[in-house]
Amino acid sequence: MRINRVLPLAIIINTSALASSIIHDTDGTPGRVTYYNQTALNVMVTQSSSAYDIRVYAPYPGNELPCHHAEIFEKYTHTHLADVQINGSILTAQLERGHEHKEKYIEVQCIDNSNLSVRLRHNIAPAPKIKLKSKMTASHWQDGDHLYPGFYQDVRYQATLNIDNSEETGFCTASSIESDAPLKLGPWHSDGFINDIISFDEPTYYDARTATISAQIICRNTGGTTRMVETWKLNQNNITRNISTYIN
Questions:
Q1: Is this structure's pTM higher than 0.90?
Q2: For 153-179, what is each residue's pLDDT tens digit?
Q3: For the segment 62-89, what is each residue's pLDDT rounded down to a tens digit?
Q4: Where are the beta strands (DSSP E) in 33-126?
Q5: Do 81 and 54 form a contact (C-beta atoms < 8 A)?
Q6: 3-state SS of 115-184?
Q7: Burial letters for 179-211: b for 16+ Cβ neighbours within 10 Å, e otherwise?
């Protein structure tokens, strides 16, 4: 009688082990798309670029919905961060602040083609990091008159810009907000890149009526959108700099 009782328990334990099979992100790195072979899902695609509102497209080949539960975890500690809502092939979740620069993964529990339970993982990158060290020097002040304000005739901008997108599909754009800001990016930066270091050392020009030079850089990946704004104010007595970074 004891043997008959122990044997079914062993079967239950073995079945439980099979039920906990994990299929990791197939390429091991964060990115927009993860493909899977011969399992419940063909692919998972991160459609969002937000650190807080996550949206993943997870189509399934059959007519029945094979996935019934999903969560988001921090990658290296496996700390639970959020439950995921499943609405057909769309997975959505909201993350609290404080996890912007941590790599994460979404884990979806599904029934595979062999009617076994599997957990599929899809990595999500940390939000992009933008670091900027810069200085501005100005000389040859020209006094204004009753029509035009005074201004610096020669202004030079020197800077080192460090961008870390953490994944190949991350991309960035730069634009001037006020005057012809020298903080610019190349066209290849909008096509997707992991990281880059860019140096600037060039003359620049500004509108004396606003006495302001301002630019922004916006980087997006699967883990969020980071916006950095740099603003310089120039007058005869001093030059001031303000830099702000926002994550969405």
A1: no
A2: 999 999 999 999 999 999 999 999 999
A3: 656 789 999 999 999 999 999 999 998 9
A4: 33-35, 43-46, 53-57, 67-74, 80-83, 85-87, 90-94, 104-111, 117-124
A5: no
A6: CCEEEEEEEECCCCEEEEEEEEEEEEEECCCCCCCCEEEEEEEEEEEEEECCCCCCEEEEEEEECECCCC
A7: bebbbbbeeebeebbeeeebebeeebebebeeb
